[in-house]
């Protein structure tokens, strides 16, 4: 009897708690939640319009470029420049920099590709900037460099006792070497990039033909795009970035963000812009903006691509996206006044850099994707009085994946704007090279072992639970059938939250 009495008391307490919660919800729902949520809908609608207008504008520019068949790089007569170089033997001296950090799987590929570039041997220097902390790996990289030296290639192996400035610091220190001062141009390749032999012949003539050009940027071509679903989705996003964003920036303004690799800089322009700085994690974009404010122009060559590798593990991709989203927002915060007060560029170009390049593409795009699709729409299911557009949203894998990643991009953008902790965090994107593809066929593959902490992602799981709750609520009480989208989106969060996205790498 006593146990029954206690049980009744517990049930009564639960009932009262539920009633109190419902009462509290009813008291704050109309005066507080409803106007806040409706305001969020309007704000997201405005940001969506801004993003839509920017996308339409870029589509119009690309359409004009395609129809007229006049991309900026097609107006140059490269054959005349090449003939002049070969006829007069007046080749400029090229410095090729390869920054690397514990790149065990790919260092041979990158060094081999750089040493295979076609250019007069006495006019090219291959500089391997090795910041590796593994002494065994350092020795292996140095041996690889010595192998190419024995073949007559001018390879310089450079190391540092610290990683001050990360990649920017390594590139900056590399340019201070005595032999670098005799170079006219510098080509930069990350450790997983493999340029074709004719890369310099297809880029340097542009810089020689136009003294106002500071940078020639090539696009990326991915060797592992078919490795898993995640790499395919990344390829879709990056193909859009190169085919549209970079092409528009090159065609309309002669400005775009340097991608940090697969590009050639005029050293004079690099120096004029103030050189490499490590104040943010996007040193490449920082340099590009500063060079643009000095009046230098950039050129994107869309038909020239360089092979490289996409991150195929979800952990590596998250770190990469944090850097790519936090860095631009932090750079925007630091350079806003400098851009506004710059007197060397037109007002129209300032508007493009501040509004389109930074604000819409680097901040609004992340925030509206996450807050509208992953917060506002689900919350409106719980508060049906809020009016939402009745259009049915595209339910494809790419949208679901991008919505999940918008959680981290939005968080990173906010961290960058506030310059909070992790604003300058730099985690090198892990590359696998051929490590997983070179296993002997006769040896049975063992099931990869991974730590639970590496597989579980709490933020994704919490968002998945929130969206799933909203979906169930909509099934029971709703009338708009948003539960279809909510269930799919919650499933995407759960898949990535439990680590079932990307390649599994054995410990």
TrEMBL record:
GO terms for biological process: cell wall organization. InterPro entries: Glyco_trans_2-like (IPR001173), Nucleotide-diphossugar_trans (IPR029044). It is found in: Golgi apparatus membrane. One of its GO terms (molecular function) is mannan synthase activity. PANTHER family: GLUCOMANNAN 4-BETA-MANNOSYLTRANSFERASE 9, OS09G0572500 PROTEIN. The chain crosses the membrane at residues 40-68, 353-379, 456-476, 482-505. This is glucomannan 4-beta-mannosyltransferase. It comes from Spirodela intermedia (Intermediate duckweed). Pfam families: Glyco_trans_2_3. Gene3D superfamilies: Spore Coat Polysaccharide Biosynthesis Protein SpsA, Chain A (3.90.550.10). It catalyses: GDP-mannose + (glucomannan)n = GDP + (glucomannan)n+1. Belongs to the glycosyltransferase 2 family. Plant cellulose synthase-like A subfamily. Keywords: Cell wall biogenesis/degradation, Glycosyltransferase, Golgi apparatus, Membrane, Transferase, Transmembrane, Transmembrane helix. It is a multi-pass membrane protein. Residues 186-381 form the Glycosyltransferase 2-like domain. GO terms for cellular component: Golgi membrane. Its EC number is 2.4.1.32.
């Amino acid at each position: 009897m006593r146990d029954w009495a206690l049980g009744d008391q517990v049930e009564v307490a639960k009932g009262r708690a539920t009633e109190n919660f419902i009462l509290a919800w009813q008291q704050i729902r109309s005066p507080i939640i409803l106007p806040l949520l409706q305001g969020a809908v309007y704000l997201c609608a405005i940001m969506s319009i801004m993003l839509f207008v920017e996308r339409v504008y870029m589509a119009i520019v690309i359409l004009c470029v395609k129809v007229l068949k006049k991309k900026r790089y097609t107006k140059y007569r490269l054959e005349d420049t090449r003939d002049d170089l070969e006829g007069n033997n007046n080749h400029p001296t090229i410095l090729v920099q390869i920054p690397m950090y514990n790149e065990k799987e790919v260092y041979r590929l990158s060094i081999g590709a750089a040493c295979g570039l076609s250019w007069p041997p006495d006019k090219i220097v291959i500089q391997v900037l090795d910041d590796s902390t593994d002494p065994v790996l350092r020795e292996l990289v140095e041996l690889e460099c010595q192998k190419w030296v024995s073949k007559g290639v001018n390879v310089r192996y450079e190391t540092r006792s610290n990683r001050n400035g990360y990649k920017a610091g390594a590139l900056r220190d590399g340019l201070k070497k005595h032999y670098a001062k005799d170079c006219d141009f510098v080509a930069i390749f990350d450790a997983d990039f493999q340029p074709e032999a004719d890369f310099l012949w297809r880029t340097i003539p542009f810089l020689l033909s136009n003294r106002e050009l500071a940078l020639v940027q090539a696009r990326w071509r991915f060797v592992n795009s078919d490795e898993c679903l995640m790499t395919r989705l990344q390829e879709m996003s990056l193909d859009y970035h190169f085919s549209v964003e970079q092409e528009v920036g090159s065609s309309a303004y002669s400005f775009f963000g340097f991608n940090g690799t697969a590009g050639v800089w005029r050293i004079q322009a690099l120096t004029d812009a103030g050189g490499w700085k490590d104040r943010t994690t996007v040193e490449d974009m920082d340099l590009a903006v500063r060079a643009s404010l000095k009046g230098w122009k950039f050129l994107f060559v869309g038909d020239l691509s360089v092979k490289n590798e996409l991150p195929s593990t979800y952990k590596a991709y998250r770190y990469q996206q944090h850097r790519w989203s936090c860095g631009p927002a932090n750079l925007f915060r630091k350079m806003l006044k400098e851009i506004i007060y710059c007197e060397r560029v037109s007002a129209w170009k300032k508007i493009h850099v501040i509004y389109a390049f930074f604000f819409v593409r680097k901040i609004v795009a992340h925030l509206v994707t996450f807050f509208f699709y992953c917060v506002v729409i689900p919350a409106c299911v719980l508060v049906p009085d809020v009016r939402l557009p009745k259009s049915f949203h595209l339910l494809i894998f790419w949208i679901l994946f991008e919505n999940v990643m918008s959680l981290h991009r939005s968080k990173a953008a906010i961290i960058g704007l506030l310059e909070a902790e992790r604003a300058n965090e730099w985690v090198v994107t892990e590359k696998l090279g051929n490590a997983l593809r070179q296993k002997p066929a006769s040896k049975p593959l063992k099931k990869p072992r991974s730590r639970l902490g590496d597989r579980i992602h709490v933020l994704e799981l919490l968002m998945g639970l929130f969206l799933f709750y909203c979906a169930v609520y909509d099934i029971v009480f709703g009338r708009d059938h948003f539960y279809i989208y909510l269930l799919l989106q919650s499933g995407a969060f759960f898949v990535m939250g439990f680590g079932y996205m990307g390649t599994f790498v054995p410990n």
